[in-house]
């Protein structure tokens, strides 16, 4: 990929990657919106164990600041009130490595019982995502208010089918799909969601929620709703006995447990140039650019085919074993694996290769679809993007399997294939002509203290 194309693509993707943000992500109010938010009523920690953890965290902050020769850490008005580490931690001779909650779990009776107050004219509303009318309301809110790039050229287009998939895994709860409505019109004006997951962090398995789709209507950005949404979803999740969460954002908050960089691979460079996602290098013609990114028409992994329900037990076993080498990953049950990875038209594609001698699944690749609306373009109104999901190669090299994934995504009329440099992805990105992005996707753990990790040790992909 040319240097100019790399820069242009990466800038667009880094701006738009904020869509997977939970608290503090794009489409939401920013940390300045948290400045007027009330501190949660249940923030006070009475446990001596918790106080020791907080003391250790403060020692880490002081130690790291001293090492870096800097003074007070950057202030985050809202996030500094939350049970989050406020400085990156790692192994040192002075401070032991911690793996524990920052705030201990509480009895239900010790939690705030009443919902947080909404500004006058607004009210909480549980969203029934399985109701077509309410699903359409969520779709419209996100479509017109969630994420645009800085130039207002691209806007993520989460389809209703995608939203249903993202919000209804096994064990999902309607009270985890939290909306805000106008009391006058009943219109949906804000949203935050959570779905359950069992997350393993440095070999410690913990029930958590994945937070996503924090969105406030553009007309209400001055209402400081985002901090209230975060506190209320936290209160609700706590009442179900869960006290940790995982989420991603394209911005730096206190404090990422890991940071991964976006990479992108052109599948239809001509269209990407026409929509303004990239530009033609002065040193390249359109014909040469198209030739550079041309792919074979046939895949190379023997026997690679779409995954079926019959493949689920073997593919689940393969992925489960593979993920155990990472420091942060989801422990999928068989039912969860089936929900997240079985193919769905227009949402996700998964493929397997099966050994002819043993009948075992030897290779697995998957990608999901997240298109963007192209605003005010005379030739195109949609840019189709495939995102790498989970991939395991044992009978072929990973770069061979992922080249096949590119071919399969091209067959689905995708224009660009995006991937993060997590897990083993670094082994194929350069050779398969992925361009490096300028922006990072930050991974966060709410109410959990642990050392930070390298991108290659991150084994979780959030939508």
Describe the structure.
- The structure is a single chain.
- The chain has 463 residues and is an alpha+beta fold.
- It folds into two domains: 3-16 and 259-442 and 450-457, 3-Layer(aba) Sandwich (Aminopeptidase), CATH 3.40.630.170; 18-257, Gcn5-related N-acetyltransferase (GNAT) (Aminopeptidase, 3-Layer(aba) Sandwich), CATH 3.40.630.
- 25% of the residues lie in helices and 22% in strands.
- The longest helix is centred in the N-terminal third of the chain and has 21 residues, at 48-68.
- It is globular.
Give a topology summary.
Layout: H1 3-16, H2 48-68, E1 122-126, H3 132-145, E2 154-156, H4 160-167, E3 177-182, E4 188-201, E5 204-216, H5 225-238, E6 245-249, E7 258-266, H6 269-274, H7 286-292, E8 305-306, H8 312-323, E9 328-330, H9 334-341, E10 348-354, E11 361-369, E12 372-374, E13 382-383, E14 385-388, E15 392-393, H10 398-411, E16 416-420, E17 435-446
Parallel strand pairs: 5-6, 14-16
Antiparallel strand pairs: 1-3, 2-12, 3-4, 4-5, 4-9, 6-17, 7-16, 7-17, 8-10, 10-11, 11-14, 11-15, 12-13
Q: What would a concise description of this structure say?
A:
The protein has 463 residues and is of the alpha+beta class.
Helix content: 25-40%
Q: At CATH's second level, what is the architecture of the largest domain?
A: 3-Layer(aba) Sandwich
**In whole angstroms, how far apart are the ends?**
26 Å
N-to-C series of helices and strands: HHEHEHEEEHEEHHEHEHEEEEEEHEE
Properties at a glance:
463 residues, alpha+beta, Aminopeptidase, 2 domains, 14-stranded mixed sheet, 3-stranded antiparallel sheet, 10 helices, 25% helix, disordered N terminus
């Amino acid at each position: 990929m040319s240097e100019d194309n790399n820069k242009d693509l990466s800038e667009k993707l880094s701006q738009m990657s904020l869509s997977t943000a939970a608290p503090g992500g794009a489409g939401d109010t920013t940390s300045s919106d948290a400045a007027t938010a009330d501190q949660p009523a249940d923030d006070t920690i009475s446990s001596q164990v918790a106080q020791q953890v907080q003391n250790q965290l403060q020692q880490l902050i002081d130690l790291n600041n001293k090492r870096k020769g800097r003074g007070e850490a950057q202030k985050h008005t809202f996030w500094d009130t939350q049970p989050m580490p406020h400085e990156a931690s790692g192994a040192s001779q002075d401070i032991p490595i911690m793996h524990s909650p920052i705030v201990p779990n509480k009895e239900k009776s010790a939690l705030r019982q009443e919902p947080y107050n909404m500004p006058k004219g607004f009210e909480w509303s549980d969203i029934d995502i399985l109701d077509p009318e309410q699903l359409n309301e969520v779709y419209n809110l996100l479509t017109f208010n969630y994420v645009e790039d800085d130039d207002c050229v691209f806007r993520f287009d989460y389809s209703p089918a995608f939203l249903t998939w993202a919000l209804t895994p096994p064990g999902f709860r309607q009270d985890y799909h939290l909306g805000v409505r106008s009391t006058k019109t009943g219109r949906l004006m804000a949203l935050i969601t959570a779905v359950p997951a069992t997350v393993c962090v440095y070999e410690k398995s913990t029930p958590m929620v994945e937070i996503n789709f924090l969105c406030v209507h553009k007309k209400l950005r001055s209402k400081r709703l985002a901090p209230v949404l975060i506190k209320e979803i936290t209160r609700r999740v706590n009442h179900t006995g869960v006290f940790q969460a995982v989420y991603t954002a394209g911005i730096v908050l206190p404090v990422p447990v890991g940071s991964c960089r976006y990479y992108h691979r052109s599948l239809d460079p001509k269209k990407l140039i026409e929509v303004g996602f990239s530009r033609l290098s002065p040193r390249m013609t359109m014909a040469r650019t198209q030739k550079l990114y041309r792919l074979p028409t046939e895949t190379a992994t023997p026997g690679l085919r779409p995954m079926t329900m019959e493949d689920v037990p073997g593919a689940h076993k393969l992925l489960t074993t593979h993920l155990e080498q990472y420091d942060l990953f989801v422990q999928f049950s068989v039912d969860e694996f089936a929900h997240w990875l079985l193919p769905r038209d227009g949402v996700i594609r998964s493929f397997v290769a099966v050994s002819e001698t043993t009948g075992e699944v030897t290779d697995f690749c998957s990608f999901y679809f997240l298109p963007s609306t192209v605003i005010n373009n005379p030739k195109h109104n949609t840019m189709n993007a495939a995102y790498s999901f989970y991939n395991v190669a044992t009978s072929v090299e990973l770069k061979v399997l992922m080249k096949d994934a590119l071919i399969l995504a091209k067959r689905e009329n995708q224009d660009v294939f995006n991937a993060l440099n997590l897990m083993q992805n670094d082994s194929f990105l350069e050779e398969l002509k992925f361009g490096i992005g300028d922006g990072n996707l930050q991974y966060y753990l709410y109410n959990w203290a642990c050392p930070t990790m390298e991108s290659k040790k991150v084994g979780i992909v959030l939508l």
